[in-house]
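The passage that follows is intended for readers who have already worked through the single-chain material. We present the inputs for a multi-component assembly, then the predicted structure in tokenized form, and finally a short commentary. You are encouraged to pause after the input and sketch how you expect the pieces to fit together before reading on.
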Amino acid sequence: MTAATPVLRIQALHKRFGSHHVLRGIDLDVLPGDRIAIIGSSGSGKSTLLRCLNFMEMPSAGQVVLKGRAVGRPVAGSDTLRYGESELSEVRKQVGMVFQQFNLFPHMTVLQNVMEGLVTVKRLPAAQARERAMAEIAKVGLAEKTSAYPGHLSGGQQQRVAIARALAMEPEVLLFDEPTSSLDPELVGEVLGTIRALADEGRTMLLVTHELGFAYHFANKVVFLADGLLHERGTPDEVLKHPKQERTQRFIERFT
Ligand code: ADP
Ligand code: MG
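Having made your guess, compare it with the prediction:
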């Protein structure tokens, strides 16, 4: 039996902002069905890592391989790869993102928000886009809110719409960047419940979170990002309950 092809293979990934060297060589394989929790202090580069994976930020060096296909082409005399626009558009379809601040279009209804990418990026006919959007909205439990505007929804409902929007694109992997950090405490549970349901479907996901209790139950792997490197990695039990590195221990103590 051959090992499954990683959905994402992250190899020696670096990201610099000017002289600020944020990511210093990240290596990580994301296998089909992996649910990887990324933890680390504020400013450690967690968002930057996710943003490099769907190319909202361009890596400074290193490579991302999506389902066996390397993204970007080498440039003679440079560590930085060259990326074609159509290639990046293809990658972004396959790598979905859910943000801390939801990022819904305020002037569009729930249905329009979820349909938007299907029509403009996937080029589905309106009727088909509508049908798929309705199905995804129903799955996150918001079927009766399709005509509402984001401003009239709770934060938890808005985040569930954002999840429906990402799912509608049928991505290979979903990236969640602190999806509950801007929610009132009483709304966190409904969003985590939605994410847990996706895990039960076997979806491949990376989740940046400070909810270590949730990470423990949700993830099959946990990685701790510090100083631009994955300082420690392992099962939730290894990293969250029995961390080997003192740095990880100190981080986890602050959150428990
Ligand atoms: P985290 O998500 O772990 O809190 P970020 O990835 O947002 O961390 O940021 C890591 C570091 O990179 C921070 O010091 C931040 O100020 C810096 N940074 C992030 N994005 C940019 C950018 N577009 N330009 C310059 N610096 C950035
Ligand atoms: Mg962040």
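Commentary: The first helix runs from residue 46 to 53. The domain at 8-254 is CATH 3.40.50.300 (Rossmann fold). How closely did your sketch match?
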